[in-house]
Amino acid sequence: MKLLTFRPPRARSGHFGVLLAGNRVLDITALTGRKLPATLLECIEDGDAALAAVKSAADEAEAALERSEQLPQAFALDAVTVAPPLRPGKIMAVGRNYADHVAEGVGQAYTRVAGFIKLSSCVVGHGATVRKPAWTETFDYENELAIVIGRTCSDVAPEAAYDSVFGYTIMNDLSCRDVQYAERKEGNICIGKNFPTAAPLGPWIVTKDEIPDPHNLRVVTRINGEVRQDGNTSQQIQKIPAQIAWYSRAGFEPGDVISSGTPAGTATGYKGPGTWYLQHGDRIECEIEKIGMLVNTVSTRKVRA
């Protein structure tokens, strides 16, 4: 299933939904008379029983729509506002995890899982405007497979890692390279990866049963329609079980996210004429096979205080 958080027409708050066939969204929050999770995070927290109840409701809705029945709890996808699927408690990001990205000049590959923490306050959803900070001229994109954790756990063994996975989504690890590289020389990466709108996430979470092999997914990024990144998760150096095992030492809770690294094709690695760094008005399309496409537009306009 593809599970999302969205705002129906004229609604002021987010609802929990399921993407149905024909790009229709079933509003799980609006269904009455049955025990269903109220939010996507609650669905993750409540485990297999909650997920089974949501699937049953989705199957019934699909059958009703096939019979051409009116279903007031179903909306066309283009009629709703897609929000971030959830706001993770923490985002653990993996750095230098594709050899071709390392070869772009970002340094040497790590000998184990390593990276940085992305703040949940940076999260925005599909369709949101992302804001290029005024203090950088090296605003870069990174299309990444994001692993959504499904249970409270710590010190997970690699061979049991997938038992802790709820599903997968897309994260665009937006980066200010000049600040990131300056910080790295001092020992930590912080502001170069953490600023308002730095973590577009979505457009939905795909449950793990629909992606039996997360290490065989094409990863494509387009800027204004031009392909910049075109890789595959099979190229990851540190695989998902190793990522989960290492970062679980910090302890995981349901809804936490691991962002698993990006392939070559980032602006920082571009050696041709002009620049690939993001500019005002650029449209970023981050697409991952079996998940979908996360789309955001860049703005340099300041948000009024």
Q: What is the N-to-C succession of helices and strands?
A: EEEHHEEEHEEEEEEEHEEEHEEE
CATH topology of the largest domain: Fumarylacetoacetate hydrolase, domain 2
Which sheet architecture does the biggest sheet show? 12 strands, mixed
Number of domains: 2
Give the helix tally.
Answer: 5
Note the gap between the termini: 39 Å
Q: What would the average pLDDT be, to the nearest integer? A: 96
Beta fraction: 25-35%
CA-based shape: globular
Taking all Cα atoms into account, the compactness measure Rg is 19 Å
Summarize the entry for a quick read.
With 305 residues, this protein is an alpha+beta fold. Helix content is 17%, strand content 30%.
Describe the structure.
It is a single chain. This protein has five helices and 19 strands. Helix content is 17%, strand content 30%. Strands 1, 2, 3, 4, 5, 6, 7, 8, 11, 12, 14 and 17 form a twelve-stranded mixed beta sheet that branches. The N and C termini lie far apart (39 Å). It folds into two domains: 2-82, no CATH class; 84-299, Fumarylacetoacetase-like, C-terminal domain (Fumarylacetoacetate hydrolase, domain 2). A hairpin with a 7-residue loop joins strand 1 (2-7) and strand 2. The longest helix has 20 residues, at 47-66. The protein has helices at 40-45, 47-66, 99-106, 177-186, 240-247; strands at 2-7, 15-20, 24-27, 74-76, 81-83, 91-94, 115-118, 123-124, 129-131, 139-140, 143-149, 165-172, 175-176, 199-207, 218-223, 226-232, 257-259, 283-288, 292-299. The mean pLDDT is 96. It is globular. By secondary structure, the chain is an alpha+beta fold.
